[in-house]
Amino acid sequence: MTDISVIIPAKAEGYRLGQTLDSISEQQFDSTAEVIVVACGGATIEVARRHAVVDRVLEETVPESTASESNATERGPGQARNRGSRVATGDILLFTDADTVVPPTWIQDHYRHYLTPAIVGVGGPLEPLERQLRHRLCFRVLSDWWYRVSWPVGFVQQPGPNCSVRRSAFEEVDGFDESLPFLEDTDLSLRLRSTGVLVYDRTCPVRTSTRRQQRVGYFRLFITYLLGYLAYLCPGRSPAESYF
């Protein structure tokens, strides 16, 4: 068994996946780690299979033509993350996305928290890959300060591109809820509270693409998440499936 398993869902990400894997190959981590890519689409699968850092590629069966952003189904990334988790051998499961670049100490920064037995989950902030001022400001508010405010009051939210979980706790809560088209990371975080302590590490950011923010707009994105939170918190309801 390895110490940590890095799991990356990648749907129609042939162009972006390479830079994600390059950043993982530069990790400064003394223990053992494996990298699993759950890939959909011929180009994406090819990039994953070709990269030396990848230990295992799990192929999804949806054709690339139907896996593009414009034709994506409402099924969220929880299904792919769960599938990768089922074959992972690590005691710690670490998740990121295929349009995200992680710093060289990313794995080590997450792993060190689990030296404390009570800790079952870790999340960190998101920063924009595109460095324009508006992106930096909006990400600072929505993907860092919001977490700093919400975690102390119990509304813990590990962002999907930058989160990890102790495997035993993940299995205890049955992993990600595959029925949720989004907020599956928030849902997992809230259910994990019953198993132990979750930590927000603001010193462990990752940089992720702003393509959705540019296409949808920050205000509309904010409203989408606000309505999603309200729907999630109302019994018998779930976030709208028309997300993005």
Automatic annotation (TrEMBL):
Q: Where is this region: Disordered?
A: 60-84
Q: Which UniProt keywords apply?
A: Cell membrane, Glycosyltransferase, Membrane, Transferase, Transmembrane, Transmembrane helix
Q: Got a GO cellular component term for this one?
A: plasma membrane
Q: Which GO terms describe its molecular function?
A: glycosyltransferase activity
| Localization terms from the record | Cell membrane
Cross-referenced InterPro entries: Glyco_trans_2-like (IPR001173), Nucleotide-diphossugar_trans (IPR029044)
Write out the transmembrane intervals: 217-234
**Domain Glycosyltransferase 2-like, which positions?**
5-122
Q: Name one Pfam family in it.
A: Glycos_transf_2
> What Enzyme Commission number(s) appear in the record?
2.4.-.-
Biased amino acid composition, Polar residues: 63-73
Entry protein name? Glycosyltransferase
